[in-house]
Amino acid sequence: MKKEKCKKKQSKMIIEPDGNLAMNLVRVTEAAAISAARFMGTGDKEGGDGAAVDAMRKFLKTVDMRGVVVIGEGEKDEAPMLFNGESVGTGHGAEIDIAVDPVEGTNLLAQGRPNSIAVIGAAERGSMWNPGNSFYMNKLVVERKARHVIDIRLSPEENLKRIAEALNRPISDLTVFVLQKDRHKELVNSIRKVGARITMHTDGDVMGALMAAIPGTGVDVLMGIGGTPEGVIAACAVKALNGGMQGMRTPLLKEEINQLKIDKIDLNEVLTLDTLVNSDNAFFAATGITEGSFLEGVRFDNDGGVTTHSVVIRSKTGSMRYIKGIHQLEKSILV
Ligand code: VTB
After folding, report:
1. Cα of 88 from ligand 1 centre, angstroms
2. 56, 77, 235, 253: which sits with the fewest CB atoms below 10 Å from its CB?
């Protein structure tokens, strides 16, 4: 009996990810951001993404974990690296689901616009939602104080009223992050109708979700349709921050609509935060590539120095760290 107990304890010790994981993952996002940053404004989306993928993979190899990429660069055939199902890490340590976006906002980077980031979410093995054939979802994200009042099945107007009440602020003080897309015309009208403020961004709703989940960033709510992979990555952050998030599959592409019909997927299913990441042991790390209002971008300094700004969040302890990294490229395994 005693032996049994001891065995159980031991295996638990091995399986549970520890605090170092998040701190190590930030090295991975820093490396990806530094490599991608050279492509700022070049118009070369693929170049920036490729450089970030290479760097991420190189650094992931040094992280003690038995990681599997659940949200990656796509299927094996089209993505040579960080493909869905790929094993990452040293092969020692905790079993982890990994969600990566080496460059979240490749357009932003290629055009030199603000808020592109390198980002990783991690959680216990088997806990991350696999979007399958679903590429787009509607998203609603708020900070912890408003997490119990949101209901994505209700109108944006009703949600904003509830959120304002929960935060004890007039609706006119709320700022909603919305992707600037034709599909959001109606959403924008609804938000304007109740008098909330809007901040529009062409891309990058992981950053929008992150800002919405952290009080005091200047963004109070994220609303609208974005990618499902980005939804899972954002969910790691929201989970770690104890914020609120709900989603709903909203297929936009013809093949996507057909396939979900064939798969008999219920489009009315509410994807709760627990559906998206079913673990209380979630981690999130992001590093700014281009300048942003929340994370500063990569700066190339004198004498080969590079400065990065990152955020690292861990759900178990609720800790959030802002990390300023000063790197000497000549000593890095990046070169
Ligand atoms: C979304 C959003 C991302 O791409 O996935 C968007 O979540 C895709 O929407 O942040 P469109 O296909 O309509 O552009 C991003 O903006 C990443 O660039």
Report:
1. 25
2. 77
Task: Going residue by residue through the chain, which has 335 residues, state the pLDDT in tens, using 9 for 90 and above.
Answer: 444 444 444 444 445 666 668 889 999 999 999 999 999 999 999 999 999 999 999 999 999 999 999 999 988 888 889 999 999 999 999 999 999 999 999 999 999 999 999 999 999 999 999 999 999 999 999 999 999 999 999 999 999 999 999 999 999 999 999 999 999 999 999 999 999 999 999 999 999 999 999 999 999 999 999 999 999 999 999 999 999 999 999 999 999 999 999 999 999 999 999 999 999 999 999 999 999 999 999 999 988 899 999 999 999 888 999 999 999 888 777 76
Could you tell me if 229 and 71 are in contact, meaning their C-beta atoms sit under 8 angstroms apart? yes
β-bridge partners, 323? 310
For residue 204 and ligand 1, the question of a CB distance below 6 A is answered with: yes
**Distance of CA 330 from the midpoint of ligand 1 (Å):** 35
Q: Is the CB of 107 under 6 A from ligand 1?
A: yes
Distance 279 CA to ligand 1 centre (A): 26
Burial class (CB in 10 A: 0-12, 13-18, 19+), 32: buried
Q: Which atom of ligand 1 is nearest to the CA of 231?
A: 7
Q: Best of 113, 135, 179, 219 to mutate for ligand 1, by most ligand atoms within 8 A of CB?
A: 179
What are the backbone dihedrals phi and psi of residue 318, each rounded to the nearest 5 degrees, phi first?
70, 15
- Please identify, by atom number, the ligand 1 atom nearest to the C-alpha of residue 181: 13
Question: What b/e string do you get for 153-165 counting C-beta neighbours within 10 Å, with b at 16 or more?
Answer: eeebeebbbbbbe
> How many angstroms is it from 203 CA to the middle of ligand 1?
5
Burial group, residue 7, by CB count within 10 angstroms (0-12, 13-18, 19+): exposed
